[in-house]
Design brief:
Blueprint (H helix, E strand, L loop, with lengths): L4 E5 L6 H14 L7 E5 L2 H11 L4 E5 L16 H7 L3 E4 L2 H6 L4 H14 L2 E6 L3 H6 L2 H12 L10 E4 L13 H19 L8 E4 L7 H5 L6 E4 L6 H14 L1
Parallel strand pairs: 1-2, 1-8, 2-3, 3-4, 4-5, 5-6, 6-7, 7-8
Helix pairs in contact: 1-2, 5-7, 7-8
The chain binds 1,3-dihydroxyacetonephosphate (13P).
């Protein structure tokens, strides 16, 4: 049985004080939820404070990105060991905003996934097609390529989480239908089965893109949807806790 995950990607939002307050509200709000995994990804500047705030709770810490070298003259970059040091258990890799604005390629994603695993960080590898690609009918080509190239040379998949985030659904309010999402999730699981055999049955595949407490109920009912990666709705305790509540009732 796969344990569900709800992960909040705060993107470039929240001061240190705002982050502490939000983290505390989430920590307190999930006290009665006994299963599943809750992950929050604050901006780098708040990682240390949030790490302290959630210490000893069931909330795990994630970073939103990392570099693939251990150290060196890479001004502005953050090394995986630094994230471990600050208390991160997870790291988002290859988010579509990284791919779009910072031109991250599948090869960069692959280097980051391998490096994260090598230091004991669990990568949440993000994949997803653009609107144009979906209209062209090449969703499977794009997502298939991102999954295969992102995982090239990764021989143990246990600590990897995949997030399917159709780019057209991110921040648009245009959520994928549960059927559309399940179709791609099942496709991804099929690729993982080809690559890793039965280990693929234990890999969590999250859906992301305009998830709210009002639409998560239907998505989470689908066989291959194991949780959510949430942007906008993770910035308010009410919205994020509402999603966690809905998932914990259904999975
Ligand atoms: P929204 O939930 O705001 O659409 O963002 C999704 C996302 O990009 C999470 O990583």
């Amino acid at each position: 049985m796969r344990e569900w995950i709800v992960a909040g990607n705060w993107k470039m939002h929240n001061t240190i004080q705002e982050s502490i307050a939000l983290a505390k509200a989430i920590k307190d709000g999930i006290a009665s939820v006994k299963k599943g995994e809750v992950i929050i990804a604050p901006p780098y500047t708040a990682l240390a404070s949030v790490s302290e705030t959630i210490k000893g709770s069931r909330v795990s810490l994630a970073a939103q990105n990392m570099f693939y070298e251990d150290k060196g003259a890479y001004t502005g970059e953050i090394a995986p060991g630094m994230l471990k040091d600050i208390g991160c258990a997870y790291v988002l890799i290859g988010h579509s905003e990284r791919r779009k604005y910072y031109h991250e390629q599948d090869n960069d994603v692959n280097l980051k996934v391998k490096k994260a695993l090598s230091v004991g960080l669990k990568p949440i590898m993000c994949v997803g097609e653009t609107d144009e690609e979906r209209v062209k009918g090449i969703t499977r080509d794009v997502v298939g390529r991102q999954v295969k190239q992102g995982l090239a040379g990764v021989d143990k998949i246990d600590n990897v989480v995949i997030a399917y985030e159709p780019v057209w659904a991110i921040g648009t309010g245009k959520v994928a239908t549960s059927a559309q999402a399940q179709e791609v999730h099942a496709f991804i699981r099929g690729i993982l089965k080809d690559l890793y055999g039965s280990a693929a049955n234990d890999i969590r595949i999250l859906y992301g893109g305009s998830v709210t407490k009002d639409n998560i109920g239907e998505l989470i009912g689908m066989e291959d949807i194991d949780g959510a990666l949430v942007g906008g709705a993770s910035l308010k305790p009410d919205g994020f806790l509402g999603i966690i509540q809905k998932i914990s009732e259904k999975k």
